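User: Hi! I'm working on a homework problem where we have to compare a predicted structure to a textbook description. Could you give me the structure for the chain below?
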Amino acid sequence: VQLVESGGGLVQPGGSLRLSCVAPSNIFSSNGMGWYRQAPGKARELVATINPIGITYYGDFVKGRFTISRDNAKNTVHLQMNSLKPEDTAMYYCAALSGLWGQGIQVTVSS
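Assistant: Happy to help. Predicted structure tokens:
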């Protein structure tokens, strides 16, 4: 049982990336899903969560730049990230709020 993330990579400041995470259907349908991130030397922090009926919550630093969404037909949660900054550089992790974590995917924002 695992979560599979995709969509990370290198982007210039001001650019956009869309992260995706596919979960097993039994996990996805009954759980809130979230994205977290961890930069080198820093603690893991919450980016955004979405519950099974689509209610969302964002970390304070997001400030309208990121949007979390879920595609229930595909058991997938997305994180659309716009206006990216160098300080958004981190390993991004998908999680089911029951405690299942993905392996993480690197996002690097640099010119």
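For your comparison, note the following. The chain has one helix and eleven strands. The radius of gyration is 13 Å. Good luck with the assignment!
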